[in-house]
Amino acid sequence: MNTRTEENYLKAIYHLGENGALNVSTNAIAEVMNTKASSVTDMVKKLSEKAYVNYKKYQGVTLTKEGQKVAISIIRKHRLWEVFLVEKLNFTWDEVHEVAEQLEHIKSDKLIRELDVFLEFPSHDPHGDPIPDQDGNFKDFEKILLSQAQIGKAYKCVGVNDSSSDFLKYLDLNGISLGTKITVVHKETYDNSLKIRLNSSEITVSQNVAKNLFLNQA
Predict the structure, then answer these.
(1) How far is residue 7's CA from residue 109's CA, in Å, rounded to a whole number?
(2) Is residue 85 within 8 Å of 91, Cβ to Cβ?
(3) Whether residue 168 has pLDDT greater than 80
């Protein structure tokens, strides 16, 4: 039985290592986990003993196949719970992350299978992130950042790169959500800010916003 802290470490390593494939430094893990590098080293050694990670001093950390399996399972539970909270309990997309962080550690495989069935097998969470199936497979789809969008071409919002509450509230305030139709009207050469058309209105967004909003062709 893995502890909640161990599961959080595996999930962090998975994300930092681009789905667990790359070496991750203990300093990077410490920053994400908000702890000291020495504490990370102790935990990584423990995870290595459980055969969840490969660790060599000064060379970083990678997940083993078993470590990836655990990390993906946690991510699957987290994203299914987010869908449940938004669709069935009327949470907003900026409220669900912290609650799902707690629910993702529930151990019942049957509960998660039945939750998936109950939600009719959603492919993406409320932020547009793909939900792995029970075998750990992700369904990919084409997407680009708003910063890469062509002027005059019609797109729709399919996800966010920043799921922080502040960013999601900013999007809500400006009428942007999953499925919103977006067309770039003008790109400012001075600071790369963008004037965009949202359905029938126009707003200007910063380059920072444009780097955190995913689109695909409408």
Answers:
(1) 15
(2) yes
(3) yes
